[in-house]
Design a protein that fits this description.
heterodimer, A: alpha/beta, three-stranded antiparallel sheet, B: three-stranded antiparallel sheet, elongated
Chain lengths: 203, 160
């Protein structure tokens, strides 16, 4: 306790109004995952320093979802984010992606393979990991065609920076449904959900 | 905090314990005295005061298995002093009860105690009278309970 108290130097404030802002963020994330490929906007007030360091939607998502029972894995060492997560949510941080419930991937280019994360079990598919992946933009990258539940016919998105090999490895996980991983792509205040049921084809 | 030697940690633990028991009036008046009429130092909330429950656990005689005694209402607050040079010290407060203003003042006092600008003044005007108040309260309580104290003796039997 003393150690974490004495190192609060990097700590940034969380939500202004914890309940309201967490619910607003949760609603946006719920809608984003229910309609894969559509872009939602997380419109909650956050501290300027937090906005300068991380995409607002990623920080808000971690504040809204993480708690003491959901280990968080950070792809890159980030003391300020680690401190904010520990302080505001009480979530433990883990070094092993396989044990994480949430993973924040700051560099989409060096994203680990999807099966490095927890995929859930047939009895408990909810035990899988949710990835929050920072991308530079939702347009201008490799075009992807999304089909599946929540998408009327098909949807084309072109997020920048995620390697083809990630989508291929993710597609290989389709047979183990209902297990799999859910992804959120974040960029500034925008967030896009790609559920485990969504089929992603590389164009 | 730049230095985290065990001495400063112990000092802070001591004053955090005192601030947790500090009455609100004393915090108000002492901090106002420290500022000498000027408004209290500016700060930003890291965690605005919030009230919740904490499970109080106990051990009979301090040795048995821990058991849940009951829940207590707690108010906690964390703030950071606004210093001219950017990030100031962080003050924390955890207190029994629902008094948010009291938690705010205690957190502010903790932050000011860590700041070279305010530290000595707060030590003199808040911690000194606070220590005296808490000691007096503890003595009064000990005297009250001492009148009803019963000592049990066990007679030792001859054959044992």
């Amino acid at each position: 306790m003393t150690d974490s108290l004495s190192s609060l130097g990097l700590l940034v404030p969380g939500f202004d109004e914890a309940v309201r802002d967490a619910q607003a963020t949760f609603r946006v994330m719920l809608d984003a995952l229910a309609r894969p490929g559509t872009v939602g906007t997380v419109d909650v007030a956050l501290d300027d320093e937090a906005l300068a360091r991380w995409p607002a939607s990623a920080f808000a998502a971690l504040l809204a979802l993480a708690d003491f029972s959901t280990p968080v894995w950070l792809q890159q060492r980030d003391d300020a984010l680690a401190e904010a997560i520990r302080f505001h949510t009480g979530a433990p941080l883990t070094d092993a992606p396989a044990t994480a419930a949430f993973a924040y991937v700051a560099d989409a280019g060096s994203l680990p393979a999807p099966d490095a994360f927890a995929l859930g079990t047939p009895e408990e598919p909810q035990g899988s990991a949710t990835l929050i992946i920072r991308v530079e933009s939702f347009a201008g990258g490799r075009p992807l065609t999304l089909t599946g539940p929540g998408i009327q016919s098909s949807h084309t998105v072109a997020p920048v920076g995620i390697a083809d090999s990630f989508w291929q490895a993710r597609a290989a996980l389709a047979p183990i449904a209902p297990c799999g991983i859910d992804c959120y792509l974040v960029c500034g205040r925008s967030i896009m959900g790609i559920a485990r049921t969504t089929r992603v084809e590389l164009n | 905090m730049k230095e985290s030697s065990s001495e400063t940690t112990q000092a802070r633990q001591r004053w955090l314990g005192q601030l947790a028991r500090a009455p609100r009036e004393l915090l108000e008046t002492s901090l106002a005295e420290v500022c000498q009429g000027a408004p209290l130092p500016a700060y930003t909330w890291l965690r605005a005061p919030q009230t919740g429950l904490a499970m109080v656990r106990g051990r009979i005689g301090g040795t048995g298995d821990a058991f849940n005694m009951g829940e207590a209402t707690l108010t906690r607050a964390v703030l950071r002093l606004k210093d001219a040079d950017g990030a100031g010290p962080v003050g924390v407060a955890w207190q029994l009860g629902r008094d948010k203003r009291r938690a705010e003042l205690a957190a502010l006092a903790d932050a000011m105690l860590q700041s070279p600008r305010w530290g000595d003044a707060v030590r003199a005007r808040l911690l000194a009278p606070l220590g005296a108040t808490l000691d007096a309260a503890r003595r009064a309580r000990a005297q009250d309970t001492a009148t009803s104290r019963v000592d049990f003796y066990t007679m030792v039997r001859g054959e044992s």
